[in-house]
Amino acid sequence: MKGCRCSCTTGISKTEVVVGALAHYLGYVEHLPLNQRVAELEARTAVLEALVKDS
Question: pTM (2 decimals)?
Fold first, then answer.
């Protein structure tokens, strides 16, 4: 498929793309394993949710 950027041509899963984009947006530029990036993003999200809830 011309112009296709799906995992079948890039070797990257949709999960990796989304987590990578979120990590980049939130300032994580380290090349960490996917499970570690997800864990760090979950922890940061929990902190942000608590801040929003308290305000």
Answer: 0.54
